[in-house]
Amino acid sequence: MDCLDVTVIDAAELSARKAFGLLKAAVVPRPIAWTSTMSPDGVANLAPFSFFTVVSSQPPLVLLSLEYLATGRLKDSAANIEATGEFVVNIAPAAMASAVELTSVQVDASVDEFELASVTPLPCRHVRPPRLAESPISLECRLHSTVQPGSDRLVIGEVVAFHLDRRVLDADGRVEIARLDPLARTAAHFARLQPLFQEEL
């Protein structure tokens, strides 16, 4: 594709809001880490984050990029992770989009978002935060490290256990993406990855 009519913008000229908008529109689709944590007082928290990716396979590490609140305070998820050193990344199926949206709303730290979204907590093997029964894949994580290279706090977690719903696995035990039907995020909308295709080589 010829790109003859190109707009070039120096990042230094952009407001933080505009840069954020361009990044969200350019880096798509983004997977959603429907992240469960637990406060030191035992209150369960559930929140979605689309700035999420894999860092390493050995050891298995995943990364969450967490914004601060407008007040400058850590979001509940980040505060819980730093206090307890544990979290669970639940992969959200597309059918759960409404519940994911419910848990994206900022509420008081005393509110249990599992109850708010009418979803089901299940115990994990190694960590205190619950995993999500409605999630086909859940990753139990222990905090590996945090770093702040810019405005957001990067939380890196080591995956210590994988929970896999057999219904999304093929005969060889591999995850079938069409069965998983994961929810994703574009600039300002939810998205799904179907129909899938494989390019002929």
Shape: globular
- SSE order, as H and E? HEEEEEHEHHEEEEHEE
CATH homology superfamily name:
Electron Transport, Fmn-binding Protein, Chain A
Class from helix and strand fractions: alpha+beta
Mean pLDDT: 92
Rounded to the nearest angstrom, the radius of gyration is: 18 Å
In words, what does this structure look like?
- GO terms for molecular function: FMN binding; oxidoreductase activity, acting on the CH-NH group of donors, NAD or NADP as acceptor.
- It comes from Mycobacterium dioxanotrophicus.
- InterPro entries: Flavin_Rdtase-like_dom, Split_barrel_FMN-bd.
- Residues 25-178 form the Flavin reductase like domain.
- The protein has 201 residues and is of the alpha+beta class.
- It has one domain (31-188): Electron Transport, Fmn-binding Protein, Chain A (Pnp Oxidase, Chain A, Roll).
- 17% of the residues lie in helices and 33% in strands.
- Strand 7 (121-122) and strand 8 form a beta hairpin.
